[in-house]
């Protein structure tokens, strides 16, 4: 709900601050005073293209600001969260227009694009008027209003869910189909995999191979070293024998120096280590042999590993991971071929589910369209357009795809006079007729669309008398479920407002300026009397104004 509107140097208004509440707020004023100023301000705040001519003469820029309470606008609150503009339960739209034609916009104090401003305003305000920002001219808005009127939420959710499932299957199938020739890729992968599987590629196997190659390549030197060491350890004067003799010499002195026992223990351990070293050395020597054929085989295998690494452009130690990746891709391709075959059936089933859900939604829409058309036609007649007719055409979408909105689109058709064929609402020429038809549609739909604030500009153009009173009644009735702002020149309409603003203009020092103020008590009665009787307000006009207010209360 709109709670505050601030206008600075906009058109002929220098500064205005307006507070709004729930229900119907009417705005009146003399011809040329700028009654539609508030509508234009909300239009610019809704993202309309900037017009430097709207900057007050002599000012550098115009500044507009509107504040909304989001308690009745969950869609707007959700949009703010998604776009990271949220700031508690309030929302402020702000826009400046420079005299040179530039403009800037902010949402909750953060810079925003005009498209973002328009997207958010679409969840907050509907403007029904004689200009291009008429809300119900959008076919998307028309379909949304029809679905809101028919309370098609469950059917829409079912269609959207079916469409999402169908779309996911189509995307999966397209991705598999665009992957190229699965058979050719599978054959190539299988060949590459066989090449890699013929060799032991695990890290342990490669390390063992490299170690065996080094041992065989240096076998002659290793054998010579082992033989020399074995010969030295086995000589008469070997280290082992020398240790034994040394231990015997020290044993004779242990009774005089106990610490020699500790030395003897160390020598004994050294002797044991020497004996174990001798045994291990003998085993190593027994394992060593000069085998040119074995060396050649090891070199061939190592060369093969390096060739594979170069071919696949990886390090030798990464060949095993590469082999596993190829195996996984081959498995996926083989499964993809099977999946592609299965997808045809699944896609057909998903399409059938969507068509069934869309058919149920379409049937509900046709029923709701007939009822809304009947109610709106009756209201059009009440609003002074006798013989007029309102219809809703449901046009099937060509070549149905998984559309979350269903299989058809709505077009609001209107015949303003008897005997005339219905034409699209967006092509209705008369601005006043367009406003009244919009009012009739909204009243018939009981304000069921999600936008909390509705603005009607000159909805009573071209009417008077009893019809004007009916228009006021309908606007007030709509105000029970939505916040309604109405620019009017008829006292019968203005009297039905829960609040009443007056727009007046004055000239000072050759400069025209508009002022907007809220009317209370006798001020309001005087304005209604002026609207009834003109510039010279008679006693009869005041009495009639008083009766108008009394009849509404």
Account of the 3D structure:
The chain is α/β, with parallel strands linked by helices. Among the domains are: 182-333, no CATH class; 519-553, no CATH class. It has 17 helices and 15 strands. The chain has helices at 37-45, 74-82, 114-121, 139-150, 153-177, 182-197, 203-217, 219-234, 239-251, 259-287, 292-312, 319-382, 431-444, 465-478, 491-494, 522-533, 539-552, and strands at residues 2-10, 13-19, 24-29, 61-69, 90-98, 103-107, 110-112, 125-128, 389-396, 408-415, 423-424, 453-457, 483-487, 499-508, 511-518. The strands form three sheets. A six-stranded antiparallel β-sheet has the order 2-1-4-5-6-7. A six-stranded mixed β-sheet has the order 8-12-13-3-14-15, with helices on both faces. Strands 9-10-11 form a three-stranded antiparallel β-sheet, with helices on one face. A hairpin with a 4-residue loop joins strand 5 and strand 6 (103-107). The longest helix has 64 residues, at 319-382. The chain is elongated.
């Amino acid at each position: 709900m709109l709670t505050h509107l601030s206008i600075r140097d906009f058109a002929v208004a220098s500064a205005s601050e307006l507070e709004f509440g729930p229900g119907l707020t009417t705005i009146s004023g003399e011809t040329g005073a700028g009654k539609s100023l508030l509508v234009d301000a909300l239009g610019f705040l809704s993202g309309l293209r900037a017009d430097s001519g709207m900057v007050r003469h002599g000012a550098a820029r115009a500044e507009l600001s509107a504040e909304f309470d989001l308690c009745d606008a969950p869609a707007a609150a959700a949009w703010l969260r998604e776009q990271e503009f949220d700031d508690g339960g309030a929302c402020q739209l702000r826009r400046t227009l420079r005299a040179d034609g530039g403009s800037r916009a902010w949402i909750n104090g953060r810079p925003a694009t005009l498209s973002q401003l328009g997207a958010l305003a679409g969840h907050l305000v509907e403007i029904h008027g004689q200009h291009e920002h008429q809300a119900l001219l959008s076919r998307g808005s028309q379909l949304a209003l029809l679905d809101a009127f028919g309370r098609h939420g469950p059917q829409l959710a079912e269609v959207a869910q079916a469409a999402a499932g169908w779309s996911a299957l189509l995307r999966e199938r397209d991705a598999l189909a665009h992957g190229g020739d699965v058979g050719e890729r599978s054959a190539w992968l299988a060949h590459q995999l066989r090449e890699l599987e013929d060799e032991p590629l695990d890290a342990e196997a490669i390390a063992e191979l490299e170690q065996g190659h080094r041992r065989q390549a240096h076998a002659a030197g290793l054998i010579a070293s082992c033989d020399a060491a074995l010969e030295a350890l086995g000589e008469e004067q070997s280290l082992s024998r020398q240790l034994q003799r040394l231990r015997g010499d020290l044993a004779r002195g242990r009774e005089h120096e106990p610490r020699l026992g500790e030395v003897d223990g160390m020598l004994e351990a050294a002797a044991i280590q020497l004996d174990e070293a001798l045994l291990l050395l003998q085993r190593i020597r027994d394992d060593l042999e000069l085998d040119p054929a074995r060396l050649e085989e090891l070199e061939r295998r190592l060369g093969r590993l390096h060739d594979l690494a170069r071919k696949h452009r990886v390090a030798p130690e990464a060949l095993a991971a590469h082999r596993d990746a190829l195996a996984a891709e081959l498995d996926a391709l083989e499964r993809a071929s099977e999946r592609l075959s299965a997808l045809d059936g699944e896609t057909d089933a998903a399409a059938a589910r969507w068509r069934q859900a869309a058919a149920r939604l379409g049937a509900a829409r046709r029923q709701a369209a007939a009822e809304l058309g009947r109610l709106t036609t009756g209201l059009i007649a009440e609003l002074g357009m006798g013989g007029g007719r309102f219809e809703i055409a449901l046009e099937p979408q060509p070549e149905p795809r998984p559309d979350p909105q269903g299989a058809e689109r709505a077009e609001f058709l209107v015949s303003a006079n008897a005997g005339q064929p219905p034409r699209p609402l967006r092509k209705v020429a008369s601005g006043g007729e367009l406003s009244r038809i919009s009012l009739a549609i909204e009243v018939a739909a009981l304000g069921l669309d999600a936008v909390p604030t509705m603005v009607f500009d000159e909805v009573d153009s071209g009417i008077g008398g009893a019809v004007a009173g009916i228009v006021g009644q309908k606007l007030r009735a709509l105000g029970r479920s939505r916040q309604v702002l109405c620019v009017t020149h008829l006292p019968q309409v203005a009297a039905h407002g829960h609040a009443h603003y007056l727009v007046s203009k004055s000239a000072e020092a050759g400069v025209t300026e508009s002022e907007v103020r809220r009317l209370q008590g006798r001020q309001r009665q005087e304005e209604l009397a002026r609207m009834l009787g003109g510039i010279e307000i008679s006693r009869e006009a005041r009495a009639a104004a008083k009766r108008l207010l009394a009849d509404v209360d």
